Each structure stands twice: as C-alpha cells, then as structure tokens.
Amino acid sequence: MIDNLMDFATRTAREAGEITLQHFGHAAVRFKGDGSEVTAADLAAEAYIRDALVQAFPDDGIVGEEGEDTPSRSGRRWIVDPIDGTRSFSSGVPLYCVLLALEVDGTPTLGCAHFPALGETLVAATGAGAWHNGERARVSECDDLAQARMITSGLEYWRDRSTDEDRAGFDRLVKATRFTRTWGDGYGYFLVATGRMDLVCDPIAGSYWDYAPMNVILSEAGGRFTQFDGQPVGAWTSALATNTRLHAAASSILRGA
C-alpha cells in the first residue's frame, strides 16, 4: 500500500510540475492578503492536485495553500504546496518545488518534493526509506562543523522575522561552518536529504504546507529536523535540519550554550 501511495504522490507532483513549467519564466505575481506571493501557476497546479486526490481518494482530507480545507472521512489527510519557492519561480530561478505530504491520524507518514525545472524528485515514507529519482537518498557523513556546508532560505527572513538572539546564534553558526549559501526553501532541505549539503538553518519554518513533508523525508534519509532547541518544528517556529551527526553541535551554537 505504501509503495502505491509513494508512486501516486510522485506521479501527481510531476504532473502538477508540468503545469508550472508552462508558466515558468513569465509568471505574473500578485500579492495575497497576508502579503505572500501567488501566481496563476500556483492556482492551476493546486487545482490539478486536488482533482487527482478527489478522484483517487475521495474520503481523504486535503489542506492546501491556495484552497479551502477538505475534512477527512478516512483518517488520512494530504498537505499540498503547489509551488514552494514562489519567489524563485516568479524570478525564473529553477529552485522551486511541488510539495506533497500525507498524514495518517494526524501523523505525517509520507513526503514528496518534485523540482520541475530540474527534473528531480525525492519521495519518502515512514519505514520505506527516502528515494531520489529511484535511488536511495542518504544524508552526508560530515561530523565536523568546521567542514559543514550550510544553507539558509533567505537573509530577509533573518532581517524581518527573527530575534536578536537568534540572529546572533546564526552569525555564530556561520562562523563555525565551512560556508553558507541561500539555496533555500524546499531545495535546501532536499540538498541535505540527498547528502549534497550538511545543514539548513532557518529562523522560520513557514506554514504547515511548507515543512510538512520534511520530517519524513529527512528522517528516512538519516537526518534530523527540529527547532533550534530540539523541539518539534511547528508553523513559523525556527527550523534546523541536519545529517544528525551535526545536530547537537549546531543547536548548541545557535542557543549560545
């Protein structure tokens, strides 16, 4: 059953990704009431995913960034982010993805991230491993912060949505690691899960659909995903994703311990 669900998530995310590519490079942005950005591609991709879910699993619930919540009658609920990284997408930068997650009785058990412009897909399910384009995905083996490669999603988040205490912790972590890049949003977590970067440090995790797949994806790839203090990630909390080996040291530096 879980293999079928992983196949469904992968196929649906890829098909929704094809819709986004029709708009990629010339998407017009408008702003929602909360100030976040949206394009016609977001709306069309989510509509496609919702229709696919209704056809395949009519009793499952749906929560999506661009539409109304559908209550669950089955104990399962799908979480949909049609374009994670709208700022990248609307700028013609290919580091955006389609995100899907599946909850069973409130617990995320499946996560999928598809990068349409890159042709890369990562899917994971509890107990079934993490799979990148059909090959097993694993985090890196780096165990020395001085050699660690770090990502953050955007410097404006540190400027606008962080605290002085957390900014100071991030500055300490930047100094403690090998280098820091801003290949952010879902792409950063994807790079950690596939072993190409070692940790992601973000002052905010965003809304639920922004991070719902990440705990399953990272844990099945051998990584760890928490707030800076080790507590579970929640909406708009801090977020630290690592290859596990670096987690305690990074958390300690962020907290000034």
Short description:
By secondary structure, this protein is an alpha+beta fold.
Provide the fold topology.
Elements: H1 2-21, E1 30-31, E2 37-38, H2 40-56, E3 61-64, E4 76-84, H3 86-90, E5 97-104, E6 107-115, E7 120-125, E8 129-132, E9 135-136, E10 149-151, H4 155-161, H5 164-176, E11 179-181, H6 186-193, E12 199-202, H7 208-211, H8 214-220, E13 224-226, E14 239-242, H9 247-254
Outline the structure in words:
The chain has nine helices and 14 strands. Helix 1 (2-21) runs antiparallel to helix 2 (40-56). The chain has helices spanning 2-21, 40-56, 86-90, 155-161, 164-176, 186-193, 208-211, 214-220, 247-254, and strands at 30-31, 37-38, 61-64, 76-84, 97-104, 107-115, 120-125, 129-132, 135-136, 149-151, 179-181, 199-202, 224-226, 239-242. It folds into two domains: 2-136, Fructose-1,6-Bisphosphatase, subunit A, domain 1 (Fructose-1,6-Bisphosphatase, Chain A, domain 1); 145-254, 3-Layer(aba) Sandwich (D-Maltodextrin-Binding Protein, domain 2), CATH 3.40.190. It is 35% helix and 25% strand. It has a seven-stranded mixed sheet, with helices on both faces. The protein has a five-stranded mixed sheet with strand order 11-10-12-14-13, with helices on both faces. A two-stranded antiparallel sheet has the order 1-2. The chain is of the alpha+beta class and 257 residues long. The radius of gyration is 17 Å and the shape is globular.
